[in-house]
Amino acid sequence: MEKIPTTPDAATLATLIRQWGAELGFGQVGISGLDLGDHGDHLQRWLDKGYQGEMAWMASHGEKRWRPELLVEGVQSIISVRLDYLVDAPRHRHVPQEPATGVISRYARGRDYHKTLRKRLQQLADRLQTVVEGSGHRVFVDSAPVLERAVAEQAGLGWIGKNTMLIHRQAGSFFFLGELFTTLALPRDEAVSSHCGSCRACLDICPTQAFTGPYELDARRCISYLTIEYQGSIPVELRPLIGNRIFGCDDCQLICPWNRYAKLSAEADFRPRHGLENSPLWVLFGWTEEEFLRKTEGSPLRRTGYENFLRNIAVGLGNAPRLPEVLAALTARKEDESAMVREHVAWALQRHAD
């Protein structure tokens, strides 16, 4: 990039940042200060109720989560970016009735977004460094204790909805967020007011009723938590409610009226790989560990691990129609080397025997 000969003023810099962000493929760029309002208090109340489950890292780092100045010395502004990830428009506003197919959250069907988003954010930081030498910048993409939705809300990228997702009136909520902390003092964008109104569709559709009320989620009942973060045996009473969701859950987003305006992404990295958008449960259950590692290379699916991947599919097979392929797949893993997989397989087979 050609170096700008004179240091632009703060307002000009903000305009350049948005221009560069658009060139890098970001759907939106916003700038906030360091004050996150009452989000720190909200987080502490949530933690006090134990709603984080086994996600102990949510309680780590103390006040750094809601006081950015403790995380990065000298930070004065935070640049937030949005990167849309839908590659095709959802055909339904709910999970389609295909109970023999493994449903994987849309964000996880392609390549892992972290590298894609981090690379572009770093390019933005490099451009900024070229224009203002001596300024400090640090990029974050789920890599530090940052309340990214709270920061993005302050930067005008949307509002935190009743389903705890960030929502934008013209872009819905199917997007990734990233942050660039900078020592530059930049003009702030205005926070966006809520537009959820009296709607509670996201709360009512949740299969496991994980929402304790508007804006509050008990992760211990959330399908995304249970199928991705949780390391143990899935509570028996929740298994029938999970259906065929084997990695994450999009229900509270699909039903959201604002996602009628969700933007589609042209990013090739986010396109589904290995048929993960419509694979039969028994096909996925037949993957060896070597296949799992090969087909999930560079994929968010790696996070759950092979054993939990099989655990999740066993639950899906227990909720699937009583087809020969379903029974054969379960029977083949009755003596799986994992005690946890065997336990979930036995539960699934019992479901089909009842």
UniProtKB/TrEMBL annotation:
Binding residue positions for cob(II)alamin: 65, 142, 163, 166, 177, 224, 249-250
Compartment(s): Cytoplasm
Record EC number: 1.17.99.6
Keyword Lipid metabolism set for record: no
GN (gene name): queG
Record pathway: tRNA modification; tRNA-queuosine biosynthesis
Residue span(s) of domain 4Fe-4S ferredoxin-type: 187-216
Keyword annotations: 4Fe-4S, Cobalamin, Cobalt, Cytoplasm, Iron, Iron-sulfur, Metal-binding, Oxidoreductase, Queuosine biosynthesis, tRNA processing
GO cellular component, one term: cytoplasm
NCBIfam families: tRNA epoxyqueuosine(34) reductase QueG
Function: Catalyzes the conversion of epoxyqueuosine (oQ) to queuosine (Q), which is a hypermodified base found in the wobble positions of tRNA(Asp), tRNA(Asn), tRNA(His) and tRNA(Tyr).
GO molecular function: 4 iron, 4 sulfur cluster binding; cobalamin binding; epoxyqueuosine reductase activity; metal ion binding
The protein's name: Epoxyqueuosine reductase
Active site per the UniProt annotation: 142
Catalytic activity: epoxyqueuosine(34) in tRNA + AH2 = queuosine(34) in tRNA + A + H2O
Cofactor(s) recorded in Swiss-Prot or TrEMBL: cob(II)alamin; [4Fe-4S] cluster
Residues given in the record as [4Fe-4S] cluster 1 binding sites: 196, 199, 202, 256
InterPro entries: 4Fe4S_Fe-S-bd, 4Fe4S_Fe_S_CS, QueG, QueG_DUF1730
Binding positions for [4Fe-4S] cluster 2 per the UniProt entry: 206, 222, 249, 252
Complexes and interactors: Monomer.
GO biological process: tRNA queuosine(34) biosynthetic process
Bound cofactor: record note: Binds 2 [4Fe-4S] clusters per monomer.
